Structures are given as C-alpha cells and as structure tokens.
Fold this protein.
Amino acid sequence: MHLILFGAPGVGKGTQAKLISQRFHIPQISTGDMLREAVKEKTELGNKASQLMNQGKLVSDTIMLELIKDRITREDCKQGFILDGFPRTIAQAKELDNLFQELSLPSVICVEIKVPDKEIIRRLLSRRICENCGSDYNLVTDPPPDNMVCLKCGGMIIQRKDDNEQTISNRLKVYLEQTAPLKEYYHQKGDFYSIDGLHTIGSVRDEIFDILENK
C-alpha cells in the first residue's frame, strides 16, 4: 500500500499517519520531520532548507526528492509507506510519478483531509512539540505538563518557530496557490478520497481505515 495524505498544514495528517502506520504496519514518511532532522543535524540539505522553512516557504523539489528517494528505498518500505507532506506542487507530483516508475512501484492512493483556515490557524498556534523526540502536544486538546517536560522522553516541550500567525498565514497562502491544484491532478488519476477533518480524530481514523481496508 502506497498512500499520500493530502491537506493544508495543521489538518491532522501527522496524527492520522501514525494511526495508519500502526494499523497497516507500514512506515510514516513525514517530509517535515525529515527536513527538521536535516536542519538539526546541519547537513548540507538541512542548511539549504533552514532559511526557507523558517519563512514558511517550500524547499526546492531537488532537496525533497533526494530525501524521499533515499527513504523509500530502505528495507522497511518494501510493503508500502505513507507520504505525509509530499507532494506539495504539480511539478513534485509529476516527479514523484517518475520516481515510482523508476522504482517499479504501484500507483498511490490519495486521501485528503479538509479543515477550514480559521480552525487550522487556531490549531497551529496551540501546537507544541518535544524538541527531542518530536511528540505533539496541544494547549487546547492535549495540554503538555506544567513544567513543559515531555512525558515520553523527558525532553523540553517548545513552540516551533514557524508556528506563529504570520508564518502560518503565509503557509496557507502558499498551499492555496501551489498545493490545492493537486486535488484535481489526483482526481484525474483516480483513487482520491476526501475526509472532513473537523470530526474527531477517531472518526477521521475510522473513515480512512474503511477506505484502505476496502482497496
């Protein structure tokens, strides 16, 4: 199973990807996590991406495809994988198609999670993460401990630099202009499904599981 989770920043793609990964035993490949790791480790790709990420802009297709090709050719991806956060543009989607052909992979299933912009901004302003293990917290729905120490690893819980209103608004603008057209692209290719992300995490999960189990 090769799945793309599609949707604006903050709709819950990461949360649902983890649940799908556990259920179907395929890895979640979060391009955002890969980029942040590269930035933290100050790799060549990470240094190139750092400035763009902090401004809420998209990194180059070349950087993304290099990261993805390396990841999806590893042993744990032989039975499939979940792409969370890629592709973000039509050009990236076409390059991903070429990469799938090169690696003789089957076509993807695409699931879109939809949430209104106002709710996305509220969610992202409330989001906190562990700077060590990356665990997600939310001031509204899943508050971190008062001492801001991660319950899973003991790392410090912080607000991401790009989780501020100006950068979030810019990310949503970029999404509308460059990423939203992917919906029509994948509609034409088939195997495209749209889910209402305003429902509970469990309801969204069950709807996605139902789609995937009937493929």
Notes: The domain at 2-116+179-213 is CATH 3.40.50.300 (Rossmann fold). The longest strand covers residues 109-114.
